[in-house]
Specification:
The complex is a heterodimer.
Chain A lengths: L2 H14 L1 H39 L3 E6 L20 H7 L8 E16 L2 E10 L3 H5 L3 E4 L4 H6 L3 E4 L1 H8 L8 E4 L2 E9 L14 E5 H8 L8 E6 L5 H16 L8 E5 H44 L1 H9 L4 H33 L12 H28 L2 H6 L2
Parallel strand pairs in A: 3-8, 5-7
Antiparallel strand pairs in A: 1-9, 1-10, 2-3, 2-6, 2-9, 4-7, 5-8, 6-7
Chain B lengths: L2 E14 L2 E14 L3 E5 L6 H8 L7 E6 L2 E2 L5 H11 E4 L11 H12 L3 H14 L15 H13 L5 E5 L7 H16 L3 E6 L2 H4 L4 E6 L2 E7 L9
Parallel strand pairs in B: 3-8, 3-9, 6-7, 7-8
Antiparallel strand pairs in B: 1-2, 1-4, 4-5, 9-10
Amino acid sequence: MSWWETVRSGLSAIRAHRLRSALTVLGIVIGISSVILTVGLGQGAQREVEEQIDALGSNLLIVSPGSSTSSSGMRGGFGSASTLTFADARAIADPDVVPDAAAVAPASTSSVALVNGDTNWTTSLVGTSTAWPRVRSRELSAGRFFTGAEAEQGAAVVVLGPDTASELFGRRSPVGQQVSVNGTRLTVIGVLTSSGASASGSSEDDLAVTPAATSSRLTGSTADTVSTIYVEATSEDMLSAAYQEVQALLVNRHGVTTSEADFSIATQASLVETANETNRTFTVLLGGVAGISLLVGGIGVMNIMLVSVTERVREIGLRKALGAAPGVIRRQFLVEASLLGLTGGVVGVLIGVVGAQVLPRFIDQAVAISAVATVAALATALALGIGFGVYPATRAARLTPIDALRSE
Amino acid sequence: MSALIELDGVRKTYRSGSVEFEALRGIDITVETGEYVAVIGPSGSGKSTLMNLLGCLDVPTEGRYVLAGDDTSELDEAALAAIRNRRIGFVFQQFHLLASMPAWRNVELPLIYAGVPRAQRRERAEAALARVGLADRLANRPGELSGGQQQRVAVARALVTEPDLLLADEPTGNLDSASSRDVLGLFDELHDAGRTIVLITHEPDVAARAGRNLVIDDGLITSDRLRSAAPAGAR
């Protein structure tokens, strides 16, 4: 009996029990499509993060207050302390002390309510220097950023993120308009282009940027502290040199040792690595759950094949009496189980691919379908069919024709 | 004329737990090519066991069974399957047709296992169905045929491989008397055409159609006699 003959006979057996076959296949369909989607989600998230690092440039150092290297004891966690100051930023900006820093931008962040007429909108107010657009790789869609003179004077000017601008001004151009913060009027001089969500998940499109002096006047803060200092190295190769220079400077200025540093320095790459690790954990976790559902689907195939063997004992006996060797019978049932598995795999892949197109419309997350994952899913489905078909097929092959023929 | 079947001191013992049961207790039979033999015996006499052995569905515990020159005692399952396929055509009491397939597909089955190409299979299946008078029922499923017609399809399936031996186990057991006459008439025709037929039955009037009657009782052949003149092959 040729292979093609065996496949045809398997197909007709599957067709003879349409509903049962469909229900059997369902388990594999669900398993395969969820594997494809979870892997796709993980890869989509990873790709987004990678695109962000490409956009931001990989020669950025991010200095935060507090220590992330030692979170035990009395030490505050990452970003919780207020140990960095504008003076630190100015010191880093000194080309004699940190020769490998190309640009330095301190940023203090606070939450404020912006008011335009009767519209008000709470957003984060970033007080910074003129180097901010450069280190954050941001551009303006309208107007301009503030100048060095304005920064020094603490001029009443503000640059809005695109979301903030549309919340306050709708479709009108905000440039030249006024917003007030705590009763102080600021002139909108520019609007940023959109950057998309950041790796940490908070929107980079909803913010208001003012000179540092303006922001501390608005929030009434007298302290000189900043929440972040962005340092751009002269090139990617100079990143570790810049890292060491900044670290040495700050350790010296704060009068601490390296091991008890009250600040931490992260590179863009290390942030991305952290984000990717989280993504990977989720992918593995969800993929594991999906894998278990695949296993359950495979057991379903075995279950149905065993039922099918029991139901077709007489047919098996007859086929044997007519000259089917045990190997031929085994092959027939194996092919049937593989066809069930493969059918489930193909349908599962189709649902996964369609899901990858539809899902991003409901959740803010890209889904990447990789050819490798798809082929692997199909191979898995086929292997499940074969693997879980072996036992029922062997049972069918072992039936003796006499007993099989005599059963009612 | 040559011996198609040679049974030589055949014993068959079934074991169920510690209980042993000897179904056949030393059978010696020779059947020549072209003979029409009926094996008669009450239930429990061992005739089903004999039929299983003759059909290569089972192997003897002791003794030798030579079918058309092949000693089957030493063969494994796959080799026995090949012998069944090539040398034996089965007709069962319950017809054993596959309900989901039309008549010609049922008849074609043994040819699939014999590795006959598709086009040739259909041709031979149609010829076999025509031989049993069902040329106009090729595409009917078993459920659409009468009992007699179903048994004719089964006979066509048994004949399609041109086997050396036609082995019928109570072929009229599930048929009314008209259909029984019909099927037995078909056997007579096949015998006249030179086929070797071994028929197992418990009905004396069915056995009366055969040229030679073997009576089996309690695992032994108790009587072996020729009824009519001579087997067809000897004429």
